[in-house]
Protein 1
Amino acid sequence: MKKQLLTLALVLLTMSWSVAQEKREIKIESSSVTNGEVTIKGQRVPYKATAGTMPVWNESGEPIASLFFTYYERTDVTDKAKRPLVYSFNGGPGSGSLWMHLAYTGPYKLNIDEEGYPLQPYGVSKNPHSILDVADIVYIDPVNTGYSRIVDKETPRSTFFGINADIKYLSDWVKTFTTRQNRWQSPKYLIGESYGTTRVAGMAHELQNSHWMYLNGVILVSPTGMGLDRSGPVMKANYLPYYAATSWYHEVLPSDLQAKDLDEILPEVEAYTLDVLIPALSKGGMLDPEERKQIAKKMAYYTGLSEKVILEHALAVPTSYYWKELMRDKGLTVGRLDSRYRGIDQTDAGERYDYDPALTAWNHAFSPAMNYYAKNVLKFDTDLTYNLFGPVHPWDRSNENTGNQLAQAMLQNPYMHVMTQSGYYDGGTDYFNAKYNMWQMDPSGKMQDRLHFRGYRSGHMMYLRAEDLATSNEDIREFIKNSLPAEGVPAKYW
């Protein structure tokens, strides 16, 4: 009994210490301000960086969570009313904002090679392609990602962890941040990557309809399905252009096709997908056997897979099988999020790979860089762990309608433009389905002049490839400039 009481006392002491430590470390409101400069397109850009935390409040005005953010402001700009402001989110759900922060649009970039592979020593260097020359940027970590944490343990997790809950509290937080920083007059943009596109698509509608904050633009980087229906034959067929791109990259296509440039191949495969494959898959078991064989032959031509494998899968090869099968004869797998990356499994047999070689390479480089950057460059001191991927599950995915919500926000706001950025080798959120999203958001074709698509020869995080880092940032730069209305031009239709 005495031993049990001693053990219980130690447990309680440890719990008490842990709670006290957590309370001590989580600062509901804090900030660290530093100054820096970066040269962009030959121009010196001085800036102020504020790394800090700001509360999420409940309806009673009590703080229930603390969100970590990093806010970059160009300091040689006097008229903030004309200065664009970009709110940046990553995805997951459960991912911190470090990916785009330290590798894409921010003033520093990750230490990686030209194709995006990790290098040692880990760290960062100045980013000459940052968009800080044309816009201020706020990188935001949702609850339980990065250094953001729940501070009221009585608040239900459902307040934060679900499609619509996430949109609601983050929109309220953005509204408050905008007010605190006196940026209501500024042109405003949202950028989201991966699940972050679901987030910002819904936030555009929420900000506009609940907080009366109207945006100039939304940038969707490697977008999800955003609740738009692409089930059945469409879902099965739409991966074919991605398969063709990846197979071309790994040089497994027939010689005549391999000799062509990717820009020549993809329009042909896209047309075949829309005009032949989707109608054929719609017929299911009614498809003529000879036609089925001819389609399998054409799909083998476009993918480098065998006709036998394609027929065994009834013309619908799953992505997981493709990543394992494509280079099976060489003992290699290809990545999901970036299919340029190759991996090795314990055995060559099986239906899917053991791990995603792209994601493991990225985690390898980002974690040490972010921990270094926060402490040594931003001067933000904390004992909290920076959660690349935080505990946010179970995540409520019910009642998702974010693609249509974004479309509604565009319909209501003639100023709003939307740009999609996709990597041709992204198998997680493939580029052709991203195009399909745009078509379904605008079935009448009335918003085509405000919907823009840009594709890159890389994967999910296209900016990790040096050539695409330059190009994709320039595309954002031009998107922002072109979505700023001329002075005196009213927001109205014809």
Protein 2
Amino acid sequence: MPFNDDKRAGLSRRTLLHAGAGLAGSMMLPVSLISPASASGDQPALGTWPAGSQGDTVYIGATVPRTGAYAVQGEDELKGMQLAVEHINEGNDLLKQIAPKIDKGVLGKKVALVVADSAAKPNNAVQSQQTFINDNKIIAMTGSTSSAVAVALNKFAQREKILYLVAISGSNDTTGKDCARYSFRQCVYGETCANAIGPVLVKNFGKGKKAAFMTPDYTYGHTVTKSVNDYLTSQGGWEMVTNQVSPLGTQDFSQYLTNIANSGAEFIVNVNWGRDAVLSVQQAKQFGLTPTMKMVIPYQIPFLAKEVGPDLTEGVFAATDFWWTMEDKYPLAKAFVDAFQKKYDYRPEWGAENAYMQFAIWARMVSEAGTFYPPDVIKQYEKGETFPSMVGDVKFRPEDHQLIRPVVIVSGKAAKDMKNPEDFWEVVEIVPGEGLMQKPDAFGCQLGDYT
């Protein structure tokens, strides 16, 4: 599938020129003009190091969507980040089980979060992170939800030599052709979800089915659709009878649903995300397409079932990163769900869980490395050591900085079967991650330099 054009992704030519690794002519001041020319020890200044870690507090810059089509998911992510920072600074036992060397902070420093609204637009994210570099000397960045933002911040992180802790990003490209030495992704993505949900679909519905795809027009949508279609056609003999590609922020899906109605499809594979997913699911029902056609969600959005209601998600198969009932299987998940619910008065969705884990992992890597110096922290990640998480033991793949972790397959519950108001999904299967992943070089990852 082709990459979306830059304008539709919200990524202008100007921002590409400013954020692209190694490109000249940036309007942004080099960090070397802000930081001291030399550092303590034998290492020269790099990125915001050592200036960013010389006080009693270190800062992480978060650019999450708080407005726009992905705002609901962005707020959930932010809550996970805020809880993680609180737990790091108080030396909470849950955090210490993941990062055992923290002690009321990281390497004697308190951690603080500075936040801006990206509105899921790469320009906004890059410019806000540049402000955080100038004003706060941040030692790490986070936030995405839109993979177009993640790709832009990958390039920016590599250029500025500041760690990027990817938030939600489902595109294969994030740790594929657009990977970066300074970027790490914890969550599941298109290829792993496709290879996890594909066998479930073939087992439950059989071979030789006809599917209509609904695809958002940017890197996440195109790569997820390609991975799902590749599996279903090669392993199940399914046929893509139409692929309806829509811009991010679409309000009216009628033209796309009309085309699907006339396509002869038996299944709708809905790759849309955020508010787009909610509206397209609701409108598919209003058009009378579902439940006659079966809906499949290969990359589940947080809060989908809550927003559309269980009548529309009943019997729907979806692939996801985490679901709160996994607390029955994993002790860390139980501790996290309890802590999150106590603080925010609802059970966490997977955006919050993913964000919390990214911060906990970062705290582990920095404290194990014994320094904030970015290359040493990166090399700690790249050791590929196994550590505990909400979904069992996991580890990073050093070749592309992708976490090897399971994919969770869920099925929507009928309203009558829900045990509480948040009991929307039944966990069908937890699929081990390693067998779902492509070979490290299959999607063109070349990490780049440490310095």
Protein 3
Amino acid sequence: MAIGKEGNVKWVDGLRGFASALVVLTHICRAWAGTLFWATTAQNTPPQLLQLPFLRVLIQGRLGVSIFAFVTGYVCALKPLKLYRQDKHEAAFVSISKSALRRFPRLFLPSAAATVLSWVICELGLYSVAAHADSGWIAQIPPRKGSLFPAVGNLVYETGAIWIKRNNEYDRNQWTMLPLLQESIKIYAFLIAVAYIRPRYRMLTSFGMFAYYWMSNDPVFGMLGFWGVLIAELQFEPATARFVDQQRILAPVLSAVLVFSGFYIASYPEGHAEWMPWSDNLTHFLQPNLPENPDMPRFSSGIGLMLAAVGIVLSPRLQELLASRILLFFGKMGFAVYLLHGTLMKTLLTWMVYGISVPADQKDDKGQLQITRMKYPGHQTLVMCLLFFFPILYGSAYAWTQYVDPWCERMTNKLVNLIKPDESKGNGYIPMGSVQVQPNGHGPIHAA
């Protein structure tokens, strides 16, 4: 899932690493500090530090998912658009075909591997402490079958279910896999459709697709996917480079305004926005411009990311910052962190916070057994545990990129080599249409 070497675009990998970290932080907060997602903890009370604008972006994982959708559109379009601008349509079509063919196995195999890991942990009973936690998010664990054949059958079902109903009991965080796959296939089809039109009109068309999904109330995988296509095209546009080069003062100022405004809008709270003046004003500003019954938090994250992305394109310094070695290192592990963090949170982190002893179930007044919930020890204990958890998480993700990802890559290559045709028969690229219809409409004539 790397972006390759298509010019100064490595900042997208850094952005992806930032997104995976946001997803981890938001799930930690959902598990033990759910009120942080509100505008403030209670009406007529001052907000906590992480409930303030800008800072709350760090714990609102919506932006992380939005970044994944944006990056998917950007990466899928990057190489074909560059080849189109070089009049290398044959190479572009070959690139699209290969990418589309590899897309599903490159998503499916890591997803399946993470599901098998969670399944093994479940059947070994290692989620038992999480089942007794007083955190609703942590206590959502997969059902343990206890015998081999029912367990294997459930594993096969859940591995496929994520691609059908967007749900996987062994790893609920994988719900994004199917919409990301659907988004990429739509973009591949779009890229073929716009292959032979001028760049300015191709940009206009991608903006039209973005507007379509805006009006269709799809603020993540549709809207942001085609915004990623538009940003990739914008970055290849010579006028963009001229503007950045010639406007040495205006370009940085405009970039700063866009990034600042984007993160402010992306700070929109998930609940009780009316409790704070800044978020209530954002509601009244955004809602008239959105479709009926909009998902306000998702739209706010999407709009904020859109503005920030344009600001990054206008700022070489921001691109260099996002392309730093540290962020690129974390970006390389972003997908692995996304796949592993839920399982590790419900095992290692849960054991650190609650201990490893499972309390006995208790009987209620009617004599029925009820799960005994272990009490959360407090934020100070959690912070101390996180000092050890994050190195373990990213160490595990690094090991995943060294062993599991290469295996998935090899399996994908073997599958592609198995099913692709003999290269001696040609690649069958799509030629430019050169057929015109006769004025009388009775038949075609071929253009010279």
Protein 4
Amino acid sequence: MSEARTQSDSPSSKPEFPITDRVKHALAQSLRGCEELLPEADWVKKLARSEATGVPLRIKLGLDPTAPDIHIGHTVVLNKMRQLQDLGHQVIFLIGDFTSMIGDPSGRNATRPPLTPEQIKHNAETYYKQASLVLDPARTEIRYNSEWSDPLGARGMIQLAAKYTVARMMERDDFTKRFAAGTPISVHEFLYPLMQGYDSVALKSDLELGGTDQKFNLLMGRHLQAEYGQEPQCILTMPLLEGLDGVDKMSKSKNNYVGITEPANSMFAKILSISDVQMWKWYDLLSFRSLDEIAALKRDIEAGRNPKEVKVLLAKEITARFHSAQAADEAEADFNNRAKGGIPDDIPEVALSGAPMGIGALLKAAGLVPSTSEANRMIEQGGVKIDGDTVSDRGLKVAAGQMVVQVGRRKFARVTLS
């Protein structure tokens, strides 16, 4: 679905309600860090109407519970939801228990196997629990799209499918590429964007959020709402967050992620490891500080403040959100202790047998490295210590006893070797 077609729906008439300073502030919050807001003029009209009438707008975010855990990259859209929630609008956290059974084809080059109802139920429970660390649960409407999708039945599904053409569906980038490459596309995959769009009809949403890879599905909601005689929703897409390396999208498979359930000390240290340049994008997308506060921090650095101090503020804010303010303070103290060569208090204890044991095998068995080749690499780089002494011999045989083993700056284990 092309953007041009969608924007042509946009009324060009003068807004019916006044554009107050509060409306301008709400627009600035909406645009903060976003990739696209379409059509912006329609969103301004909706905000102005809401301000004048006191009727909150309905903000929808749909997430398929394809995995039980989320990392902070997933919270980018949740943060935007929280910002709009704090402006007084009604946010709807939609769990796609029905659409999960179809499988979202977005960005995929092969048909994805659908999840079982049991997997969906398990994932949905932990998904919302984790999302509630960002959203205010007391002001969040939780819905499941099986509520209206199941009752559609075969007749309703056929009537819904009649509201969109195959030619328009094939404009979708991933379908186009797969068709050109001769890669199979199952008919049920055409149902996914239709069902996601129908969610917007069922919820009468004013705005739907999603990642940039969801644009086609979000625009489908606008199309179907118009087909059903509703005022079309606006759409807001958020960029994908680069991971700790500052290059690739945050991903567990690339090991450049910060999990929202990982220990506070690890979370704090990981965030502090990002570059000074990358820090500002994280502030825009992850911090709850106002734009004015962030601008003031930038001026502080320009005036000579150490960027690390500002990065510490970000690391503490995010760590406190998913743990507590006390945990964030303790994580900072732990980080400073490690930086001085100290040993953390909460390191894991590991009991191993087989002394004398090769250093590479010991590091792997203690869970400090994924492989002996990685152990050798770390030794060559001077990143392995036993009781504070750097190990330089890859062929070292470690004798029986108890010792503190360190790999890099953040990985420790108290090993008892027999």
